[in-house]
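Q: Could you fold this chain for me?
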Amino acid sequence: MALPKLKVISLTDAAANRVRELMASSPKPIVGLRVGVKNGGCAGMSYTMEYAESILPLDEVVEDKGVKVLIDPKAILFLLGTEMDFQTTKLSSQFVFNNPNQTSACGCGESVAITPVQPDAVESA
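A: Sure. Below is the predicted structure, expressed as structure tokens.
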């Protein structure tokens, strides 16, 4: 019996609605939103997001609430189990990543420290 595949990322209703709005207003046809992580910032890493005009061969494709999210293959172990939300406050509107692998964040909220999931932990789940 095959084990169920762990979902790399899930979206809240607010995040899915915002992604749909952004895709509808894009001047170019896009297939989804590409999410990843990059080195940088005072805490070590930051999340990246960009429109995806095509699906790359190694992208992890996640479909949730009618939205297609493409995960950069280098980011999968950093994002495993993450919930993407969209929050609006009096001062800002932004995507927020609720990541169980995040160990700390900088004071400005622009960068985070993330411990990647160990591959053997994924296989035993």
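A (continued): The mean pLDDT is 82.
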